[in-house]
Amino acid sequence: MNLYNLDSKITDKSYEILNSHIEEQKQKNMIRVNEIRNNCRDILERHGIFEDKKNGIIYQAMEKELDNLERNIDYFSEYYFEELTKNKIDVGIENISSKIDSLEHNIDFIYEDDGYRYNKTESENNLKNMLFTYFESYKANTIDLLLKSGYSKNMIEDIEDDILEYVTSKSSDILTEKLSQDRIKSFFSLNKSLNDLSVNIINEAEARYKCDLNGMPFDELKDKRESVRKKAEKIKDIRMQIASLDLKTNELNGMVQKLNNERILL
Fold first, then answer.
1. First and final CA of the chain: distance in angstroms?
2. Are 79 and 188 in contact (CB under 8 A)?
3. Residue 29: which residues within 8 A CB-CB, separation 6 or more?
């Protein structure tokens, strides 16, 4: 029995799931980078360095560094997700072949799990290094541009101290932890989605085998139709409940109106 292109199916659908998780992670990263942006702007604004014609170049330099930071965070997130997905696809194809082989030779099927694990320490170190690199560049560029703009040495030193204080503060550690937790949650969500896909396609392989054995065409849309049918029945049931509530409400309103009319006559 051939694979009925199930190897291509698991590959294509795995990358669809991967891409959706990458986009979701990018949105999370954008939110975290915006937290950094707000803190960096706040440091400047506390010292009277607002985004105007004179200081525009300072804020432009900050945005450039933030763009680099966001790209780097996105890149490493994608790297972890892609490595997981590639591994899952390879193991998934092996499981499909093993499942078909077990059916053809009437032997037990043993589901092979992948050995890919998330390295939390490595991930956190990457994030810390990226944040450190950003703040070092942000600090150096900001000080250089402030000097060129003619700001006083005392103000520049105060701004430098504020940047260093933020980098070494609990707030910075919390931000790193947020970024780390965002990535972990997305990683395990991706892992679960890929596992569910693998199981579904293994079940499809068995269903196809049985249909082929009995000379019957495999109905790929059967489960989808069943799902739609159940949803339609649920919607119908909800509508009937609403109609019943409306009827009872109308009856109650009629009774209230009748009582009011009787009181008026009395």
1. 87
2. no
3. 70, 73, 74, 77, 179, 182
For the chain, give the number of residues: 266
Token reading at 201: 């396609």
pLDDT tens figures, 145-195: 999 999 999 999 999 999 999 888 888 888 889 999 999 999 999 999 999
- DSSP per position, 199-250: HHHHHHHHHHHHHHHTT----TTHHHHHHHHHHHHHHHHHHHHHHHHHHHHH
Sign of torsion, CA 227 233 238 242?
positive
Tell me which DSSP letter residue 55 carries: T
Task: Quickly count: other Cβ atoms within 10 Å of residue 195's Cβ.
Answer: 16
Alpha carbon distance 41, 70 (integer Å): 17
| CB contact at 8 A, 53 and 193 | no
